[in-house]
Design a protein that fits this description.
Layout (H helix, E strand, L loop, with lengths): L8 E3 L5 H13 L7 H22 L5 H26 L4 H26 L4 H24 L2 E3 L7 H14 L5 E4 L2 E4 H31 L5 H18 L1
Parallel strand pairs: 1-2
Antiparallel strand pairs: 3-4
Length: 243
């Protein structure tokens, strides 16, 4: 079964992709042998859950926002380095790694957005919409990975690392400007950001769906009944000759 598995082509065109790759490879080569990719994957999940906890606590203790930023940095370290470490050491487990990494990412998104909703920094209905949009895009990416053979990690020049940086910047802005005014309406900063994120994620999912549907249809076009009958007759003729 393992021999028949073919890993999908990874497409990562984030603004920081090239620099990040060099940094991760250098870090992986210096990583102590006692630490393996599973340790880093676990760190990624734990740290993202702690981001959510920090956000939830920040409703009462504003200083918890600093911890959210620190845990985001640790999440980048674990979640970004685990695959690189496996590749550098030649210990790739493509099916296991892909499954575990992205299931954990899904839980991580739930922790983060849930923490923001619990803190009061994001309205629960907007948090729910953001999660739906995120999971919609995730489903499209995972289906395309299986059906098209391409794993798209970034869109519009932004991937997981760029999104973490934006989230960290937004978190720090909360210290000085927790509320913004748009068209005369005051909104919590993360409500405004959540609305923008939901719109961008949904548009990205729709655009990617249209592109992949066209690509798959061209690869597997619908054969007309007349053409199908002609092919059947041709097959019968070939069989007759063979006999």
């Amino acid at each position: 079964m393992a021999e028949s598995f073919k890993e999908a082509d990874r497409t990562y065109t984030g603004l920081l992709a090239a620099a990040e790759k060099r940094l991760l490879v250098g870090m992986a080569r210096r990583m102590p042998a006692v630490i393996n990719s599973d340790h880093l994957t676990g760190l990624g999940l734990v740290s993202m859950s702690m981001v959510g906890v920090s956000y939830a606590l920040s409703g009462r203790f504003t200083g918890a926002l600093w911890w959210a930023v620190i845990w985001l940095a640790l999440n980048w370290f674990g979640d970004s380095l685990d695959g690189t470490l496996a590749r550098v050491r030649g210990h790739q487990r493509p099916r296991y790694g892909f499954y575990v990494d992205h299931v954990f990412d899904s839980f991580g998104a739930l922790f983060v957005v849930g923490g923001l909703a619990l803190s009061g920094r994001m309205t629960p209905i907007i948090a729910a919409v953001v999660l739906v949009a995120y999971f919609l895009l995730s489903i499209e990416i995972f289906l395309a990975t299986y059906c098209v053979g391409k794993f798209q990690i970034s869109y519009w020049g932004a991937g997981p690392t760029e999104l973490r940086i934006l989230l960290a910047i937004g978190t720090l802005v909360l210290f000085v400007k927790p509320v913004v005014t748009i068209a005369g309406t005051s909104l919590p900063l993360f409500d405004a950001g959540g609305i923008v994120a939901a719109i961008v994620l949904t548009i990205t999912a729709v655009v990617a769906t249209i592109r992949h549907v066209r690509e798959l249809y061209r690869a597997e076009p619908l054969v007309s009944s007349a053409r199908a009958q002609a092919l059947d007759h041709l097959a019968d003729d070939v069989l007759c000759v063979a006999e």
